[in-house]
Backbone:
């Protein structure tokens, strides 16, 4: 695609995805925590598309919502009846009326197209009017076959329409097309559905271009890149592939994974160098971890930020809005949500910290709970620097604890505690000498009577 031209991206996503056996449109099924169609959009990002048009059918409203969440400028056009890939692209014609530039067509259910492949397509487009993505297949299955003459692509024949000698060709169509926008729609106008499927085939534009004396070319990629998702089993295989790729990428960036096959990432997980991740850790969307952090076994993180030198887990849960500053510690069975844990603060055992700010160097004792929810609204807990919250303190928000203040173990703190103060909010201990023994004797006597022993 010449650098001076705009590129419009068209993603075909109208297929019903019947074999997924799902209420959810196929392209919205998540891979690495984000919809398949977003992976296709992301693959094409290298082409810097100025327009992105999704051709949707089944579940178009849900598709619109999801793609606009990723990029609010994304347009969605409807293909009411699925009459073939050529017909699908034609649905974008009106939206692209007057558009001067290139078109890149991708499939919404094909999430693994690499940036290298997109780059090769763009390069090939600079000296071809139409470019297709090809792949050499050991087992070409029911793919369309590329009929070539040297570097020139002459036509594409669908498996159903192919003669036996054509079916022996192993160079197959991977589905991606790049062409000048105006030309592509002109060619599509001439595509007929006179074939074995009665469909309008997008790859038929190749033959039509050649008939006009235009150039058509192809680039090739690994078959694995064009792997489409049709069933839940395909999705599971794709997820495994995605995770393996992400693990390799993370390790290449200098992160240690003790047991890589047990750690699960999202498409947007970022982990800084020299961070150590122990086995069985799960990253949901929106997690960034800086360098030199230590994420211990069985922790679950989503929508959170972990700074340099922080330690998390084992068995910690960081929920959206958890922000850990440098050298903080979040220990076992601790849940943190929408809370800033400032530098060097520690929450080491069995706590819930929600809607809170914990000051620098503050220590939160075991079993502390921020009681942030009154049944209707959420309230904030603010704790200053260098404070010491005794074990099993209930902090009934909204509440503020000053710098270097303390709360006694087992306190239920319902009002603010000023800096440097000690708050004791529990019943005073009362010890009655000998009473335990006397009580026990009495109980035993009562039981003996009931049992008829006396
Ligand atoms: C297509 C190619 C084939 C290629 C293969 C690679 C055509 C005619 N054939 O075949 O040469 O080897 O991909 O995987 O292009 N879609 C729509 N609307 C439609 C039809 C399809 O949106 O009317 C979408 C589907 O949702 C899917 C994509 O286009 O995401 C491809 O359609 P599909 O039916 O899977 O094409 P294939 O038969 O696999
Ligand atoms: Ca397909």
Residues:
């Amino acid at each position: 695609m010449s650098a001076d031209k705009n590129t419009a991206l068209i993603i075909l996503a109208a297929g019903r995805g019947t074999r997924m056996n799902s209420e959810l449109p196929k392209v919205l099924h998540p891979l690495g925590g984000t919809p398949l169609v977003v992976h296709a959009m992301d693959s094409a990002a290298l082409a810097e598309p100025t327009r992105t048009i999704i051709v949707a059918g089944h579940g178009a409203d849900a598709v619109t919502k999801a793609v606009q969440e990723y990029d609010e400028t994304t347009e969605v056009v409807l293909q009411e009846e699925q009459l073939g890939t050529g017909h699908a692209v034609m649905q974008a014609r009106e939206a692209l009326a007057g558009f001067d530039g290139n078109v890149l067509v991708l499939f919404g259910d094909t999430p693994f197209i690499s940036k290298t492949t997109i780059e090769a397509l763009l390069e090939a487009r600079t000296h071809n009017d139409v470019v297709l993505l090809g792949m050499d297949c050991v087992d070409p299955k029911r793919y369309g076959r590329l009929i070539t003459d040297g570097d020139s692509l002459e036509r594409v024949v669908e498996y159903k329409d192919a003669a036996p000698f054509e079916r022996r060709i192993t160079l197959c169509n991977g589905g991606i097309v790049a062409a000048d926008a105006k030309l592509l729609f002109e060619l599509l106008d001439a595509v007929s559905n006179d074939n074995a499927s009665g469909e309008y085939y997008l790859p038929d534009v190749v033959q039509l271009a050649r008939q006009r004396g235009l150039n058509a070319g192809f680039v090739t990629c690994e078959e694995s890149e064009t792997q489409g998702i049709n069933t839940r089993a395909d999705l599971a295989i794709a997820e495994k592939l995605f995770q393996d790729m992400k693990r390799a990428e993370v390790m290449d960036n200098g992160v240690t994974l003790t047991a890589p096959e047990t750690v699960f990432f999202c498409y947007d997980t970022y982990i800084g160098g020299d961070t150590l991740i122990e086995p069985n850790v799960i990253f949901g969307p929106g997690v960034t971890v800086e360098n030199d952090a230590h994420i211990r076994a069985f922790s679950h993180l989503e929508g959170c930020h972990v700074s340099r030198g922080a330690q998390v887990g084992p068995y910690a849960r960081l929920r959206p809005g958890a922000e850990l500053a440098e050298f903080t510690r979040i220990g076992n069975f601790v849940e943190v949500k929408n809370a800033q844990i400032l530098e060097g603060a520690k929450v080491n055992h069995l706590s819930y910290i929600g809607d809170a700010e914990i000051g620098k160097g503050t220590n939160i004792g075991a079993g502390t709970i921020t009681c942030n929810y009154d049944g209707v609204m959420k309230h904030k807990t603010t704790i200053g620097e260098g404070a010491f919250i005794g074990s099993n303190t209930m902090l009934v928000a909204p509440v503020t604890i000053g710098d270097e203040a303390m709360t006694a173990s087992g306190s239920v703190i319902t009002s603010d505690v000023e800096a440097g103060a000690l708050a004791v909010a529990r019943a005073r201990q009362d010890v009655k000498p000998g009473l335990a023994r006397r009580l026990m004797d009495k109980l035993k006597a009562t039981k003996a009577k009931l049992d008829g022993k006396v």
Observations:
- Residues 228 surround calcium ion (ligand 2) (CB under 6 Å).
- The chain has a mean pLDDT of 97.
- The two ends are 101 Å apart (CA to CA).
